[in-house]
TrEMBL record, chains A, B:
<keyword id="KW-0805">Transcription regulation</keyword>
<feature type="DNA-binding region" description="H-T-H motif">
    <location>
        <begin position="37"/>
        <end position="56"/>
    </location>
</feature>
<keyword id="KW-0238">DNA-binding</keyword>
<dbReference type="InterPro" id="IPR050109">
    <property type="entry name" value="HTH-type_TetR-like_transc_reg"/>
</dbReference>
<dbReference type="InterPro" id="IPR011075">
    <property type="entry name" value="TetR_C"/>
</dbReference>
<protein>
    <submittedName>
        <fullName>Transcriptional regulator, TetR family</fullName>
    </submittedName>
</protein>
<dbReference type="InterPro" id="IPR009057">
    <property type="entry name" value="Homeodomain-like_sf"/>
</dbReference>
<dbReference type="InterPro" id="IPR036271">
    <property type="entry name" value="Tet_transcr_reg_TetR-rel_C_sf"/>
</dbReference>
<dbReference type="GO" id="GO:0003700">
    <property type="term" value="F:DNA-binding transcription factor activity"/>
</dbReference>
<dbReference type="GO" id="GO:0000976">
    <property type="term" value="F:transcription cis-regulatory region binding"/>
</dbReference>
<dbReference type="Pfam" id="PF16859">
    <property type="entry name" value="TetR_C_11"/>
</dbReference>
<feature type="domain" description="HTH tetR-type">
    <location>
        <begin position="14"/>
        <end position="74"/>
    </location>
</feature>
<keyword id="KW-0804">Transcription</keyword>
<dbReference type="Pfam" id="PF00440">
    <property type="entry name" value="TetR_N"/>
</dbReference>
<dbReference type="InterPro" id="IPR001647">
    <property type="entry name" value="HTH_TetR"/>
</dbReference>
Length: 194, 194
């Protein structure tokens, strides 16, 4: 796409793209995948429907651009070096993303639409990895390499089901309990049997 | 609804309902919530669209009836009394429901459509409780009461993220590892500090 690079230099095009992708992301997290239509995006962003179609011919193109932007802009709490404090902060951040950031709806969208092809599978991986990157980094710094993946699945999975399927508020006491349970079966990074 | 009871006695009505609800369930697990339209359901079940509208005026009515039927018909492996064997069997059954039974898509559907009201919230609870009932029963029989809920969240959550978001095949070795990690922080049912 030769024109892509030229167009990208035009500040009006850059602004249009940013506005449209941001409007798409808002629709996606507020009302889900099905709310993302060219008409709804154009209305919300304040551009003509034809403009939206010109840059993103399909709904999946719109969803893809919005998910990429959401992931690009995601941030995580800074690590302090204290394993338990950092894990709790990363888990609390993940729980907050699920509820207030509507990560639960974004993840559900890519699972519901999984049979629409490779792009959706890639978005699913991108969302999951972005949402769990903070926790993975903390674990990698403190526990044996063989413990990282199971501990990550246990921590993220338990918070996901408590928040999303049981509708539970995961306060500090719940998070601390989960962290202690998971750490009970890990060995420190660099230990003889790590 | 007086007519509901009378109608239910008519075997033709019973058959129509069963056919339509089953067709709806097939559409739901194969293609997701959005595939459930009155037209698609009527076509698949072999009835007139007006018949479908007469019994289930909205798409949510159709989805609700299908999810209830799927949950009513769910079965779980029989418990043997061996904690580890029963937990592994229950987890393997849950993983199989996620992949082959498309429980992942059903769960994703209710999360994506969560802002459509109380019926969806009830279906979410029904699906999650049905999918995890086997594991909950095994845990309740063997571990201290205070350990049941966290252990359930850790086990179901970890399998959910491994299967649904990481696309991992959870074989016996993976399940055994998760079971041992979770049991490491539980105390047996009936013990002094349970």
């Amino acid at each position: 796409m030769a024109s892509e690079t030229e167009e990208a230099l035009d500040p009006r095009v850059v602004r249009t793209r940013r506005d449209v992708v941001r409007a798409t992301g808002e629709l996606l997290v507020e009302d889900g995948w099905d709310a993302v239509t060219h008409a709804a995006v154009a209305r919300r962003a304040g551009y003509a429907k034809a403009t939206v179609y010109a840059h993103w011919p399909t709904r999946l193109d719109l969803v893809e651009a919005a998910v990429e932007l959401i992931c690009d802009e995601a941030d995580h709490p800074a690590a302090t070096g204290d394993l338990r404090a950092d894990l709790r902060a990363a888990l609390a951040d993940f729980a907050d993303d699920l509820t207030h950031g509507h990560l639960d709806r974004l993840l559900a969208g890519v699972v519901e639409h999984a049979n629409e092809g490779d792009v959706v599978a890639r978005l699913r991986t991108r969302l999951y990895e972005t949402g769990t990157a903070g926790m993975r980094a903390v674990l990698a710094a403190h526990v044996a390499r063989r413990d990282v993946e199971p501990a990550l699945a246990l921590l993220t999975g338990s918070v996901l089901v408590l928040v999303t399927f049981e509708g539970r508020r995961v306060d500090a006491a719940v998070l601390d309990d989960l962290v202690e349970r998971v750490l009970a079966s890990t060995t420190p990074a660099g230990s003889a049997d790590g």
